[in-house]
Design brief:
The chain is α/β, with parallel strands linked by helices and about 375 residues long. Helices cover about 30% and strands about 20% of the residues. Bound molecules: 2-Phenylacrylic acid.
Length: about 375
C-alpha cells in the first residue's frame, strides 16, 4: 500500500504519494485497478437449495469493474441460514453455481471474495434443519422479529452451543473456505459483523459463557481467531479479510466497551497478515450514527489494509483516502443502483437512485435492470 509507516495522529497517516479512488492498490497478492469496493449486500435472490442462479451471475458480472467485489453473505452450513433466498457455500451445486459467477467476473478483469456467514441466533426454526432452534453463544433472545418464508415472526430464544460443538463451527467455516477456493474465489471475507454468530461471541451483551469462549476479552475473541486461522489455512492469510462493525446495534447486539473490545480484536488480527480489515463504521440500525465509537482507534490499531464502509459518497471517500483514514472504500447502496459505479465516479456522472422496495427478494427488477451510462452521457459529462 502507499501509506507509509509513520503516523501523525490516529486515523491520519502520512502517505508517500496522493491517493484517490483510482489509485491502484495492492491487496494481498492482487493489484486492484481502483479502490472502489463493492460491499457485501444481502439480496435474497438465490434459487432453490440456496444455489446462485442465472440472474445472480448477471448481477455480479455487471459490477465487475469494482476494484474488488465482496459477495453477499453466504451461509457455510444449513444451520448458518438466517433468511429466505440467501446463497450457501456448503453443497456441490452451490460450488458449481458460484464457479459461473467467479469465471464471469474474472473474464471481465474483476476480483471477487466470498463472504463466509453463520447467522447464529439471527434465524428461526422454520429456516433451520429439522426445525431446530438457532444456535448462539448464550440462550439470549434477540429483540424484535425476523424474516421467514411466511413473513415476519418473533425471534426465538436460541440454544447455547456446547463447548464441544465449537470445533464443529470452526470446521463449518473451514469447509466453506475450501468450497470457496474450489469455486474459484480470489479470497474470502469472514463475517464478524452486524450481530451474526461471530459478533455474538465477541460482544458481552450476547456472550455470557463461562468456558474458554466467554468471559474475558481474550476468550470472547477466540472463535473469531480460530475461524480466521482456519480460513487462512485454506487461502493463505493474505487472501482472507475480516469484517467488523464496532458501532452497530443492528440485530440487537451490544457491548459494554466497544472502544476496548474492537482495538483488541484488531491487534490480535494483526498477527495473521490478513488481506484487509473491513469496518462497518456506522450504526446501520440508525439509533446513533456511531454509538460514541471512535473509528480512528480501530484504524490505528490495525496495521494492514483498512476498508471503510458505511454511507460513503464519492466526496467522503476521497477525503478518507486523502487523509489516510482508509485505504479502500466499500460502497453498498450506490453499487445496487449503479452497476458502473467506477465509471460514473471517474467522470462525475449522476448516480441512479436505489429502490429500497426491491433490495430484498424478488426478481431481476431492481437487481439487474439498473441502467449503465449511455455512451452519449459519458461524452457529455
Ligand atoms: C440486511 C438484511 C439482511 C442481512 C448484514 C448480511 O448486515 C447482512 C444483512 C443485511 O451483514
Amino acid at each position: 500500500m502507499s501509506k507509509s509507516a509513520s503516523t501523525s495522529k490516529p486515523g491520519e497517516r502520512t502517505r508517500t504519494a496522493p491517493v484517490d479512488l483510482f489509485t491502484p492498490a495492492k491487496l494481498g497478492p492482487y493489484e486492484l485497478t481502483n479502490r472502489i469496493i463493492m460491499a457485501p449486500l444481502t439480496r435474497n435472490r438465490a434459487g432453490p437449495g440456496a444455489v446462485p442462479q442465472e440472474m445472480n451471475v448477471d448481477y455480479y458480472a455487471q459490477r465487475s469493474s469494482a476494484g474488488l467485489i465482496i459477495t453477499e453473505g453466504s451461509q457455510i452450513s444449513p444451520q448458518g441460514t438466517g433468511y429466505p433466498g440467501t446463497p450457501g457455500i456448503y453443497s456441490q451445486a452451490q460450488i458449481a453455481a458460484w464457479r459461473r459467477v467467479t469465471d464471469t467476473i474474472h473474464e471481465r478483469g474483476g476480483r471477487v471474495f466470498l463472504q463466509l456467514w453463520h447467522v447464529g441466533r439471527i434465524s428461526h426454526p422454520s429456516l433451520q434443519p429439522n426445525a431446530a432452534l438457532p444456535v448462539a453463544p448464550s440462550a439470549i433472545k434477540p429483540d424484535g422479529e425476523t424474516f421467514t418464508e411466511t413473513g415476519l415472526q418473533p425471534f426465538v430464544t436460541p440454544r447455547a452451543l456446547e463447548t464441544g460443538e465449537i470445533p464443529g463451527i470452526v470446521a463449518q467455516f473451514r469447509h466453506g473456505a475450501e468450497n470457496a477456493l474450489e469455486a474459484g474465489f480470489d479470497g474470502v471475507e469472514v463475517h464478524g459483523a452486524n450481530g451474526y454468530l461471530l459478533d455474538q461471541f465477541l460482544r458481552d451483551g450476547t456472550n455470557r459463557r463461562d468456558d474458554d469462549y466467554g468471559g474475558s476479552l481474550e476468550n470472547r475473541t477466540r472463535l473469531l481467531l480460530q475461524v480466521t486461522h482456519a480460513a487462512a489455512g485454506v487461502f493463505g492469510a493474505d487472501r482472507v479479510g475480516v469484517r467488523l462493525s464496532p458501532a452497530n446495534s443492528f440485530n440487537s447486539i451490544s457491548d459494554s466497551a466497544p472502544d476496548v473490545t474492537f482495538p483488541y480484536v484488531a491487534e490480535r488480527l494483526n498477527r495473521f497478515g490478513l488481506a484487509y480489515l473491513h469496518v462497518v463504521e456506522q450504526d446501520i440500525a440508525g439509533a446513533d450514527a456511531t454509538q460514541g465509537f471512535d473509528r480512528r482507534k480501530l484504524r490505528d490499531a490495525f496495521k494492514g489494509t483498512y476498508i471503510a464502509n458505511g454511507g460513503y459518497d464519492q466526496i467522503r471517500a476521497e477525503v478518507a483516502l486523502a487523509t489516510g483514514a482508509a485505504d479502500l472504500i466499500a460502497f453498498g447502496k450506490p453499487f445496487i443502483a449503479n452497476p458502473d459505479l467506477p465509471a460514473r465516479f471517474a467522470i462525475g456522472a449522476p448516480l441512479n437512485g436505489a429502490d429500497e422496495a426491491t433490495f430484498y427478494g424478488g426478481d431481476e427488477k431492481g437487481y439487474t435492470d439498473y441502467p449503465f451510462l449511455a455512451p452519449e452521457q459519458a461524452q457529455a459529462a
